[in-house]
Structure formats: structure tokens, C-alpha cells
UniProtKB/TrEMBL annotation:
Swiss-Prot/TrEMBL keywords: Membrane, Transmembrane, Transmembrane helix
Membrane topology: Multi-pass membrane protein
Molecular function GO labels: zinc ion transmembrane transporter activity
PANTHER family, sorted: ZINC-REGULATED TRANSPORTER 3, ZINC/IRON TRANSPORTER
Ranges that cross the membrane: 6-29, 36-57, 69-87, 120-136, 156-176, 188-207, 219-236, 248-266
One GO location term (cellular component): membrane
Protein name, as recorded: Zinc transporter ZTP29
InterPro entries linked to this entry: ZIP
Length: 276
């Protein structure tokens, strides 16, 4: 393997594995109460919406035009809206016998908690998938930066690492709450970071000749549509349920502001001729 590719892989691992640092903040503390979970779900929803609208969709529109960019974005929305119809919603068994109401009361409470945990786990998986897709082009950027020199690649890897820590929290927290397993939370957050070195491998060996930039930007725009739909359909309702509408909305905008600032500092870390 080429030494430059090895350097890029090492640098991308620094950035990608920083999601593990975020996961450690979660697993080394007690499981949060529902209100804290709701606030952090809102924060994660803000991260996802910022990535969807201000990064992926924005770049697609700038690269391939307003009409094409929007068509790709909404094709992603429609695609996953159709898929969502086939995903069964968690449901509670309803007892019809009046004499068994007292007996079923505790079981109903357990069923409700199971429903909550399934919903939260699903939102954690959504976050992991979305952040993995977002990390993929960051790995490409680290590779291209390292081709320009070790200093450029190292600066970019450090910027990405700092930017990935809260993403690790956003993935690990709902998984830990839903499964009560520190290992599962840590594992899923870490796996979401491995999309970064995968991006290095793809761009180094497959991308240059196999996919046109227009198709790539369109596909990333569609990913933005999928992420936006999933966030609004799954994560935001959970945040409202657990933290209350006012507090959840504040957490969403805080997450969006944090991700926007993070993307800005990441962008200025790049050389002038490069862009995420």
C-alpha cells in the first residue's frame, strides 16, 4: 500500500475514532433521565438537520444547480417515506377484560417502557447511519489534504476529531438508554467513525474513475433528504415527548448552531482550493 495512503488512513482513524471519545463520556456516566435524554435527542436532531440542509443539500444545489439539487434531495425524502410505511411501529397490547385491568397495569407500564426503548434505539441507529454517511466525505477530504502535505492532513484530522466528539455522544446516548449496554453504545458509536477511513480507501482506489462528480453530489443530496425525513419523523417526536416542546426546540437549534460552527471551522482548515 502506498505510504501516502497509509498516512491518510492513520490520520482519518484519528478523526474517526474520536467518536469513541464521545461514547466514553456517555458510558462512564450513569444512564440519563428521560428529560436529559430528550434534550440530547433534540441536540442530535439539530446536528442531523444541519448536516442535511446546510451541508449535503446545500452542496448539491451549489454543485449541480437548484433544480437538480432539489430533485435529488426530495427523491431521498420520498424514497424513505415509502420505506417508512413498511417499518412496523411499536404497539401496546390492549386488554379488553375489565377484571384483568389491575393485573395488566404493571404489564402495560413495562410495555410502555419497551416501546420507549425501541423508539430510542431506532433513533440511535438513525443517528449512527446518518453520521457515518456524513463522515464518509470527511475521510475523502483527509486523504486529499494529506496528499498536499502532512501539515494540511494533520490540521484537518484534528479539526474533524474535535467535530466528531459530540457526534459520538449523539450516537451512544440513545443506544445506552435503550439497551442498558455500555458495550453496545460504545461499539455503535465507534463503528460510525469507521466510515472515515473507509472514505480514504474508496477515494484512493475506486472513486477517481468510477463515479462522476455530478452523480456523487446528487447521491449525497439524496442522503440529506433521507436524513431530514428520519430526523423529523423519528427523533424530533421523541425529543418533544421526553423534554417538552419548548426545551426540545431550544436543544434542536443549539445542535444546529454547534454543527454549523463545527462545519465552518472544518472548512477554514482546508486549503483554499479544497472543499468538503
Amino acid at each position: 500500500m502506498d505510504s501516502q495512503v497509509l498516512v491518510a488512513l492513520g490520520l482519518s482513524l484519528v478523526g474517526g475514532l474520536s467518536t469513541s471519545i464521545g461514547a466514553l463520556f456517555v458510558v462512564l456516566n450513569e444512564a440519563p433521565n428521560l428529560k436529559v435524554l430528550g434534550l440530547l435527542q433534540g441536540f442530535a436532531a439539530g446536528l442531523m438537520l444541519s448536516i442535511s440542509f446546510l451541508d449535503l443539500a446545500h452542496n448539491a444545489i451549489n454543485s449541480i444547480g437548484f433544480l437538480k439539487g432539489n430533485l435529488w434531495f426530495f427523491s431521498g425524502v420520498i424514497f424513505f417515506a415509502i420505506i417508512a410505511n413498511f417499518i412496523p411501529e411499536p404497539s401496546l397490547a390492549q386488554g379488553s377484560d375489565l377484571t384483568s385491568k389491575k393485573k395488566n397495569k404493571d404489564e402495560g407500564g413495562k410495555d410502555m417502557m419497551k416501546k420507549h426503548r425501541r423508539q430510542v434505539l431506532f433513533s440511535g441507529i438513525i443517528t449512527a447511519v446518518g453520521i457515518s454517511l456524513h463522515n464518509f466525505p470527511e475521510g475523502m477530504a483527509v486523504f486529499l489534504g494529506s496528499m498536499k502535505g502532512l501539515r494540511v492532513g494533520l490540521n484537518l484530522a484534528v479539526a474533524i476529531a474535535l467535530h466528531n466528539i459530540p457526534e459520538g455522544v449523539a450516537v451512544a446516548l440513545p443506544v445506552y438508554f435503550a439497551t442498558q449496554s455500555k458495550w453496545q453504545a460504545f461499539k455503535l458509536a465507534t463503528l460510525s467513525g469507521f466510515a472515515e477511513p473507509l472514505g480514504v480507501i474508496i477515494v484512493a482506489y475506486l472513486f477517481p474513475s468510477s463515479l462522476s462528480p455530478e452523480i456523487l453530489e446528487g447521491l449525497l443530496g439524496s442522503v440529506g433528504g433521507v436524513m431530514a425525513f428520519l430526523t423529523l419523523h423519528e427523533m424530533l417526536p421523541l425529543a418533544f415527548d421526553y423534554a417538552g416542546q419548548k426545551q426540545a426546540v431550544k436543544a434542536v437549534f443549539f445542535g444546529m448552531a454547534f454543527m454549523s460552527a463545527s462545519l465552518y471551522f472544518l472548512e477554514i482548515s482546508l486549503p483554499a482550493e479544497m472543499s468538503l
